[in-house]
Specification:
alpha/beta; single chain; 5-stranded parallel sheet; 4-stranded parallel sheet; 500 residues
C-alpha cells in the first residue's frame, strides 16, 4: 500500500480485492485452528481429569450446574436434581461389546455396570451387537435413554460416552481385549481382572453374556444389578411413547394376556426344533444353523430335544395349553414376537381358538412402526413393555426375554406369569393327541402342573457348579423384592413355588 502526498492531500491507495479476501480467509483459518486446538485440549483435560482427579472436576461441574440451572416457571415441572457423584480414583476404563438380542444385552449391561463398580473403573457406554442374526444397527442411545443412564448411576459408577483420544487405536493404543469367564464371582474379578486393568488401563470385554454369577455375590452388588435393570435402563422417549400407546389400546378393550410365542426362525434354527415343520422347512433351518458359526451345536435330533422340554411350544400346542389352562375364546391375546415361522398357516389353529389375537402390527398404523423397521431390538422393546404391563404373561420358551419379563413382573408385585413346564406338557400333549388322555384329564393335569408356577414369591434354586441349570438371577432377583418387608416373612414355605 502506497501513501502519497499531493498538494497537501494524503491519498491512500486501496489494496486489491483478492488480497483483502485472502487476508480475511487467513484470519478466519487461524481462528478456526485455535478454537479446535483449545477445544481438543479441554476435552483431553476433562478425560484425564475424570481418570486421575475426579474430585476437582466433579466439584466444578456441580458448581456450573448450580449456576446455570434457572428455577422453573409456574406450572413447569423441574427435572429431578442429580444425585451427588461418587468420588473415587478410577483404576482405568472398561469398554464392553455386548452380544445377543435385546434382553441378553440388557442383562449384560447390568452386569458390566456392577463389575465397573466393584473394580472402581470408568465405564464406557456399552456397544450393542450389530453382527448377530438380527443385524440390528441400533446404538445404545437408539434404544435406551443415554443421559438418564449416565445421570442415574453417577453415585455408583462414572460413565463416559467414549474413551479419551490418547487411549484410542487411532493413536496407536492397543487395549487388552478378552472375554471374562462365564458365571464369574467377585474373587475372579478382584484377583484376575483388576491386575490386568492396573497394567493396561483399558480393558475391552468382547463378550458379556452371563459373565457374573447368579449367587454368592455381595448383597449391595446384587441390588445394584437390580437398580440398573429396573431404573437406569429406561427406553428412549419415542419407544416409551409408542409402547405406552400399545398398552393403552389393549387396556381400553379389557384385560389381556401376553403370549411370548418364540416360534421364530432364529430360535428354531438355533435349537434344532422342527416339530410340526415340513421336510423342506426342517432342511432350511438346518442350513441356517450351519451358516452361523457361533451356533456351535450343529447335529440335533429334534424329537429328543422336544421330549427334554428344550423346544419352544408350537402355535398349535400353545392353543391347546391356553385352552386347558381355562382361557376362554373371547380372551384378548397379544402375541409378543417377530415373524412367526410359517406365518399365517401356523397361526390358523391359534386364531380359530382365540379370535381376539392381536400384534403390534395390527394395533398400530404402518407409519407408526416405520421408524423401527429393520431394528429388531427396538421392536422387541415395544413387546417388552406390553409383556410387563399385561394382566397375565405366558412365555412358550424360557429365553432371555421370558426371564427378564418374569423378573420385572415380580418386581412390580409378583404379577401373574404362567411359567410353563414344557417337559411335562410335551408328555401330556402327546398322550392327548394320540387318544390315551381325554380332554378333561388333559386339562386337569395341565392346571395341576402349573398351580404353583405363576410367578409367586420363591427363593432362587442354587445348584453349585451348575450355574446354567440353576434359577437365573434376573428372572427372580429375590434380593431386590423385599424392600419394606422381611424376606423371611415373604418367602415362607406357604408362599414358595415348587422348583422349576
Amino acid at each position: 500500500m502506497e501513501v502519497r502526498s499531493e498538494g497537501g492531500h494524503v491519498r491512500c491507495d486501496k489494496l486489491p480485492s483478492p488480497v483483502i479476501a485472502r487476508t480475511r480467509l487467513q484470519v478466519w483459518f487461524i481462528r478456526l485452528c485455535s478454537s479446535l486446538f483449545l477445544w481438543t485440549c479441554l476435552v483431553q483435560l476433562v478425560a484425564v481429569g475424570e481418570l486421575w482427579h475426579p474430585h476437582l472436576l466433579s466439584n466444578i461441574s456441580n458448581r456450573i450446574s448450580q449456576i446455570t440451572l434457572a428455577p422453573a416457571g409456574p406450572g413447569v415441572l423441574s427435572p429431578p436434581p442429580l444425585v451427588p457423584a461418587r468420588n473415587y480414583t478410577s483404576n482405568g476404563f472398561l469398554r464392553v461389546s455386548c452380544n445377543g438380542g435385546l434382553n441378553q444385552m440388557r442383562a449384560a449391561i447390568c452386569d458390566m455396570v456392577t463389575v465397573a463398580r466393584l473394580l472402581n473403573l470408568t465405564l464406557v457406554v456399552p456397544e450393542l451387537d450389530k453382527t448377530s442374526f438380527w443385524a440390528d444397527p441400533s446404538n445404545f442411545e437408539d434404544i435406551f435413554d443415554l443421559r438418564h443412564f449416565i445421570d442415574s448411576l453417577r453415585d455408583e459408577v462414572r460413565i463416559v460416552r467414549r474413551l479419551p483420544k490418547n487411549f484410542s487405536r487411532k493413536y496407536g493404543y492397543k487395549p487388552l481385549e478378552m472375554p471374562p469367564v462365564s458365571w464369574a464371582n467377585k474373587k475372579y474379578y478382584l484377583e484376575q481382572v483388576l491386575p490386568l486393568v492396573s497394567k493396561h488401563k483399558v480393558l475391552h470385554f468382547n463378550r458379556t453374556d452371563t459373565r457374573l454369577a447368579n449367587n454368592l455375590i455381595p448383597h449391595d452388588l446384587q441390588r445394584l444389578r437390580c437398580r440398573v435393570n429396573f431404573q437406569a435402563l429406561k427406553f428412549t422417549p419415542k419407544i416409551e411413547s409408542l409402547g405406552h400407546k400399545l398398552v393403552r389400546i389393549l387396556q381400553e378393550k379389557g384385560p389381556f394376556v401376553t403370549l411370548h410365542l418364540r416360534y421364530e426362525m432364529d430360535m428354531l434354527a438355533f435349537s434344532g426344533c422342527t416339530h410340526g415343520c415340513t421336510a423342506e422347512e426342517a432342511e432350511e433351518l438346518k442350513r441356517l444353523r450351519y451358516a452361523y458359526p457361533w451356533w456351535r451345536e450343529k447335529e440335533i435330533v429334534s424329537e429328543e430335544r422336544r421330549s427334554q422340554g428344550l423346544c419352544p411350544l408350537t402355535p398349535e400346542e400353545s392353543a391347546l395349553i391356553l385352552q386347558a389352562l381355562g382361557f376362554s375364546k373371547d380372551t384378548q391375546i397379544y402375541i409378543a414376537a417377530g415373524e412367526i415361522y410359517g406365518k399365517d398357516r401356523r397361526l390358523a389353529l391359534l386364531r380359530a381358538a382365540f379370535p381376539r389375537i392381536v400384534k403390534k402390527e395390527t394395533l398400530l398404523a404402518p407409519e407408526e412402526l416405520q421408524q423401527f423397521q429393520n431394528h429388531s431390538s427396538q421392536m422387541a422393546a415395544l413387546d417388552f413393555m406390553v409383556a410387563v404391563a399385561s394382566n397375565t404373561f405366558v412365555p412358550t420358551y424360557d429365553g432371555n426375554m421370558a426371564k427378564l419379563v418374569e423378573g420385572h413382573r415380580r418386581h412390580l408385585g409378583f404379577k401373574k406369569s404362567i411359567l410353563l413346564d414344557r417337559k411335562k406338557l410335551v408328555e401330556l400333549l402327546d398322550m392327548h393327541l394320540n387318544g390315551t388322555l381325554s380332554w378333561q384329564g388333559f386339562s386337569l393335569a395341565v392346571r395341576s402342573v402349573h398351580e404353583r408356577r405363576i410367578g409367586q414369591p420363591t427363593r432362587r434354586r442354587v445348584i453349585p457348579d451348575k450355574p446354567k441349570e440353576e434359577d437365573y438371577f434376573y428372572a427372580n432377583p429375590q434380593e431386590c423384592l423385599c424392600v419394606g418387608t422381611n424376606c423371611d416373612d415373604l418367602l415362607t414355605p406357604g408362599n414358595l413355588s415348587k422348583p422349576r
